[in-house]
Design goal:
The protein has 199 residues and is mainly alpha-helical. It contains seven helices and two strands, in the order ααβαβαααα. The protein has one domain.
């Protein structure tokens, strides 16, 4: 079991609320509380595994790691509730690598950075498969479940895409510095998933 310190757990809870407001504020404003709760659940299923996988992989590689809130990122995430494009960066995983060799350190950082977006791509594909299967069987008679799966797919795809942008300090900058080919495959996958979920 992954040990996340108390302030890390609190940070994750605040992050979930911030992302849920950024994505689902329209549901709250129109008093569609059940739809907003669906967004909260989808956020938990898309965002938390991303961060926990960073922590798990970092610790597996012998690093110290924990989740922490980023005040600037948190404000930007909340502000994006008024924008069509969502900024999802309320916090991040701090990784302390006990390696002094720059080659090994870059490798560890790249593997750790890859873990989050890869998790989102896997979650997004799984939710998409389940969504298509349920639509085939039940048509649109299970609206909230289909909404949940749709939000999970879109949110997972967006989190993967956003984090894979090759801009420091995002995950993409670490992955592309280590292996441009790996980064390209992951980035293309996130774009494909995002476009499919939208159109």
């Amino acid at each position: 079991m992954i040990d996340v310190r108390m302030y890390g757990s609190l940070g994750l809870a605040i992050s979930i609320l911030a992302i849920s407001l950024a994505v689902g504020l329209k549901y709250l404003l129109s008093w569609r509380l059940s739809s907003f709760l669906v967004v909260v659940l989808a956020t938990m299923l898309a965002y938390v595994p991303h961060e926990l996988m960073h922590i798990a992989v970092a610790r597996r590689l012998g690093c110290l790691s924990t989740y922490t809130l980023d005040p600037v990122g948190l404000v930007l995430t909340l502000m994006s509730s008024a924008l069509p494009i969502k900024i999802i960066m309320p916090g991040y995983v701090i990784v302390s690598a006990p390696y002094y060799d720059s080659f090994t350190k870059r490798r560890v950082e790249a593997i750790t950075a890859s873990a989050g977006p890869l998790t989102n791509i896997a979650i997004g594909l799984g939710a998409l498969f389940l969504q298509l299967s349920l639509m085939e069987v039940f048509s649109y008679h299970i609206t909230l479940i289909l909404l949940l799966l749709q939000v999970i797919v879109q949110l997972s795809a967006w989190i993967a895409f956003f984090n894979l942008l090759p801009i420091p300090p995002l995950d993409g900058s670490k992955v592309i510095a280590w292996s441009p080919l790996t980064w390209g495959a992951m980035f293309a996958s996130s774009i494909g998933l995002m476009l499919y979920s939208l159109f």
